[in-house]
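User: Hello! I'm new to structural biology and keep hearing that structure can be predicted from sequence alone. Could you demonstrate with Heavy-metal-associated domain-containing protein? Please show me the input and the output so I can see what each looks like.

Assistant: Of course. The first part below is the input, the amino acid sequence of Heavy-metal-associated domain-containing protein. The second part is the output, the predicted structure written as tokens.
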Amino acid sequence: MTIEFQVEGMSCQHCVAAVTNAIREHDEAAKVHVDLASGRVAVESVQPAETLKAAIDEAGYTVTGIANGATNDTTNGASGAAR
């Protein structure tokens, strides 16, 4: 399943690597595409969105929106601790 995250705080290639590595710690087979200009991170993974969001948050970035590519559901809200 592909999940798109809107992420704030990314400004350079180090940020891209940090987000990618954080996601791959939870799913080493994940396909991660980061668009630095728009702040979008598309992830093809078997992990649930909340797990991936928590990984991005733990890396020090703020997820401001999540869109599930399978259903196009969008959740907007402040970053916070995963349940």
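User: So the tokens describe the shape?

Assistant: Right, they're a compact way of writing down the 3D structure. Reading them back into a model, for example: Strands lie at 2-8, 31-35, 40-44, 62-68, 74-76.
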